[in-house]
Amino acid sequence: MEQTFIMIKPDGVQRGLVGEIISRFEKKGFYLKGLKMMNVDRSFAQTHYADLSAKPFFPGLVEYIISGPVVAMVWEGKNVVVTGRKIIGATNPSDASPGTIRGDYAIVMGRNVIHGSDSIESARKEIALWFPEGIAQWQSNLHPWIYE
Ligand code: RTP
């Protein structure tokens, strides 16, 4: 089944939003397959955001991501990449609808609380980068109550 990489950024951790964010994905019916809190160093942050290295905001983005611990997660479920991005909301919190994580908990782009993979291919790469040790293999007993 499809998987995505979700990261609660340092502001989300410092503001005590970890439980709320996990709860939103869990209540939707997605399965939590990987979870760890970690500090990332500069080169790791630069690797994660390598596609944005030419952007003027890249140095500030790297400083933001290394400014405190993050929570790295793998979530699984049908269409979890696209649906996960909908749960997260638009990159700029000013454009994010109420009811989305960024719409409810963020104001500016440079403190937008959470990251989610933008495609199945990015998810595959990001899960390999963040969870080189692999993730737990298990099947939820709730499966028949979530999927027909
Ligand atoms: P993310 O990767 O964090 O899920 O965000 P995204 O796909 O919605 O947006 P992306 O374009 O990949 O940008 C990554 C992160 O960089 C910061 N950003 N700042 N100041 C700016 O113009 C600007 N643009 C992007 C945001 O933290 C964004 O989430």
Task: Write up this protein.
The chain has 148 residues and is α+β, with helices and mostly antiparallel strands. The chain is 41% helix and 16% strand. It has a 4-stranded antiparallel beta sheet with strand order 2-3-1-4. The radius of gyration is 15 Å and the shape is globular. The two termini are 14 Å apart. Ribavirin triphosphate (RTP) binds next to β4.
Secondary structural class: alpha+beta
Strands side by side in the biggest sheet: 2-3-1-4
Helix content: 40-55%
Spell out the helices and strands N to C. Answer: EHHEHHEHHEHH
Total of DSSP H or I helical runs spanning 4+ residues: 8
* Annotation, overall tally of beta strands: 4
Average pLDDT score: 97
Ligand species: ribavirin triphosphate
**In angstroms, what separates the terminal alpha carbons?**
14 Å
Q: How many strands, which pairing sense, and closed or not: the largest β-sheet?
A: 4 strands, antiparallel
Globally, the shape reads: globular
Low-pLDDT segments, ≥5 res? none
Radius of gyration, rounded?
A: 15 Å
Beta-strand share of residues: 15-25%
Briefly say what this structure is:
With 148 residues, the chain is α+β, with helices and mostly antiparallel strands. It has helices spanning 10-14, 18-28, 42-48, 58-65, 80-88, 101-105, 120-130, 143-146, and strands at 3-8, 31-38, 70-76, 114-116.
Keywords:
148 residues, alpha+beta, four-stranded antiparallel beta sheet, 16% strand, binds ribavirin triphosphate
What's the topology here?
Elements: E1 3-8, H1 10-14, H2 18-28, E2 31-38, H3 42-48, H4 58-65, E3 70-76, H5 80-88, H6 101-105, E4 114-116, H7 120-130, H8 143-146
Antiparallel strand pairs: 1-3, 1-4, 2-3
Bound molecules: ribavirin triphosphate.
